[in-house]
């Protein structure tokens, strides 16, 4: 629920929705297989927040999106708010999207051609990877309208059909991934579904594999870990028989499918499956031989390491992340590097290394303010850092509190 109050902790959000459903602590605790004392301590912040899989179960029982418990985001563009998500929602939910027969283009309509649109979409993908989420969200309404017009052109022009549908898939993939990143899990799924339908129509295996990544992002954002694992495995099996053995783009896409499925397995607390999938991705990364960015995957040996660390954090192996998390990510796209620093800061916080954790968050914020200020894990980490070292004066304390205010971790 956007606007519920970004300063609320996860425990306070659970209590809010529990009361709204009319559940006592005893009833809700029983529905998720825990004691009343456990839930009471979670709600009061006297114990650390539940694992992500348990949060997903709580969200299911309370009948709210997972993001409502974790804490929705508020899109920031530098020092001012710029939130065009309603326009993105309007573009995705336009009645014209329901039926081409009912709402086909007028005969004289000037429809775009796919070539010029490709470069625009790829520019916005670059904005996403460099952490400029505001630019992406601002561009999405127009891009989604153009994608729909390209689908109309595909119906008129058989020779351009494949390219038109491929560009539509790429556009909707960008929308799904960005929306998942900023906490709009419901419309992220809608965009991912559109991406995969367009990819099906294109008939291009790589386009479909790329679009499947958007499906895993949306499923992860919605806490549907079993479904994300199933999509990843199905895509991997399907793609493996349809690609050139040494095609670097295909290796990268297949590798990323394994990595996203591994994160789903880790959040489902399935260590064996997560380890197996990470091993498959590592084999593909070694075949690729270096860190590359085919299809904006950032795939290569370093990204496998980053996903392994993220998986271990979800599996609550904090010491592993603390011991191995100090790695060079400066050569990676900022989105990947910032995501790692946020994970590393979380692990350092849980290990009681507050100064090191805050340093990681400051570095991440300097790289991309939007990615940091939009991340619920950052807000929870900042609250924990304040608890560990109450703001009682001094440079570090004042900087910590100022960052917590910027990220809406506190009022």
UniProtKB/TrEMBL annotation:
Pfam families according to UniProt: HTH_31 (PF13560)
Keywords: DNA-binding
GO MF, one example: DNA binding
Family matches, as CDD domains: HTH_XRE
Keyword DNA-binding among record annotations: yes
Start and end residues of each HTH cro/C1-type domain: 14-69
Family matches, as SMART domains: HTH_XRE
PROSITE patterns, A to Z: HTH_CROC1
SUPFAM superfamilies with a match to the protein in the record: lambda repressor-like DNA-binding domains
Name used for this protein in its record: Transcriptional regulator
Lineage: Bacteria, Bacillati, Actinomycetota, Actinomycetes, Kitasatosporales
């Amino acid at each position: 629920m956007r606007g519920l109050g970004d300063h609320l902790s996860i425990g306070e959000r659970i209590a809010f929705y529990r009361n709204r459903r009319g559940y006592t602590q005893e009833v809700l605790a029983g529905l998720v297989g825990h004691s009343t004392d456990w839930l009471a301590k979670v709600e009061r912040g006297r114990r650390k927040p539940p694992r992500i899989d348990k949060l997903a179960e709580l969200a299911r029982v309370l009948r709210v999106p997972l993001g409502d418990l974790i804490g929705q985001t508020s899109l920031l563009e530098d020092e001012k708010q710029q939130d065009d998500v309603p326009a993105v929602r309007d573009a995705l939910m336009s009645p014209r999207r329901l039926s081409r027969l009912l709402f086909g283009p007028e005969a004289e309509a000037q429809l775009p051609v796919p070539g010029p649109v490709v470069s625009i979409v790829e520019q916005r993908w670059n904005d996403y990877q460099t952490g400029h989420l505001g630019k992406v969200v601002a561009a999405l309404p127009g891009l989604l309208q153009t994608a729909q017009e390209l689908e109309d052109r595909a119906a008129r022009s058989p020779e351009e059909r494949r390219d038109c549908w491929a560009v539509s898939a790429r556009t909707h993939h960008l929308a799904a991934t960005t929306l998942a990143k900023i906490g709009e899990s419901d419309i992220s799924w809608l965009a991912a579904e559109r991406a995969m339908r367009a990819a099906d129509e294109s008939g291009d295996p790589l386009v479909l594999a790329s679009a499947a990544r958007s499906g895993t992002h949306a499923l992860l954002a919605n806490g549907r870990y079993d479904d994300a694992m199933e999509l990843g495995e199905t895509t991997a099996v399907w793609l493996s028989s349809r690609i050139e053995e040494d095609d670097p783009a295909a290796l990268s896409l297949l590798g990323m499918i394994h990595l996203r499925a591994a994160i789903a397995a880790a959040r489902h607390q399935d260590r064996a499956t997560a380890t197996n999938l990470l091993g498959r991705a590592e084999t593909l990364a070694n075949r690729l031989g270096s860190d590359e960015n085919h299809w904006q995957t950032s795939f290569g040996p370093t990204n496998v390491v980053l996903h392994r660390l993220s998986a271990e954090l979800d599996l609550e192996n904090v010491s592993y992340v603390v011991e191995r998390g100090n790695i060079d990510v400066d050569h990676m796209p900022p989105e990947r590097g910032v995501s790692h620093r946020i994970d590393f800061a979380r692990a350092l916080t849980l290990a009681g290394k507050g100064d090191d954790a805050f340093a990681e968050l400051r570095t991440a914020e300097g790289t991309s303010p939007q990615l940091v200020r939009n991340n619920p894990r950052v807000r929870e980490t900042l609250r924990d850092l304040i608890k560990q070292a109450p703001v009682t004066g001094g440079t570090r304390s004042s900087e910590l509190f100022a960052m917590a205010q910027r990220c809406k971790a506190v009022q």
